[in-house]
Amino acid sequence: MSAREVVLGRIRDALALAPLPAVTVERAYRRGRILPDQERLELFTDRLLDYKAQVRTCTASKTAATLAEVLADLGARRIGVPAALDRSWLTSWGGTVEEDCADVSATHLEALDAVVTASAVSCAETGTIFLDGSPDQGRRALSLIPDVHVCVVDLSSVAPGIPEALALLGPERPTTLISGPSATSDVELERVEGVHGPRTLVVVVRTDV
């Protein structure tokens, strides 16, 4: 008998066995952790800065002015936005705004000076921002191809830890996790930025939402 026949015979024998009973795995994840707003803000900011992201904080009423300052500091003249981004956020900025859609090519996205999106949920403990493809966040390409990503995060959507953050997300949505600008290290542990996404991440945290 050849080795192939032996292997196939064992597979047939295994398939003929009665199915194993379902096994329940206990998931003892920590849940329900609560942190005061100021503590969550400080922790989230600390983690973002550690990842070499830029952080600006503002009240909801100052969103437009803050974004205008951020985009001016970046030297941005032409930006991309998802279809349902709150356009009142850009009323203080005088550059060109291009609405993204599925027909916009990767080459066109790459030529943008920056992209501005909202966010779904964030995690203070890890400094991670979750995008779930909602209309104010857009498709995944929009936040990965341009070299600069300006992301607006409401402090009310920042969860203390990963279990609490995941509980706020819909499992059926295409989730993208962002922890600082795109970066990797080569075999000599030299950091290289912009390999898999934007080299610059600016997070605008709205503290009174």
UniProtKB/TrEMBL annotation:
Boundaries of every LUD domain copy: 108-205
Highest taxon listed in the record's lineage: Bacteria
InterPro entries (alphabetical): FTHF_cligase-like_sf, LUD_dom, NagB/RpiA_transferase-like
UniProt cross-references to Gene3D superfamilies, sorted A to Z: NagB/RpiA/CoA transferase-like (3.40.50.10420)
Listed name of the protein: LUD domain-containing protein
Organism from which the protein derives: Streptomyces chengmaiensis
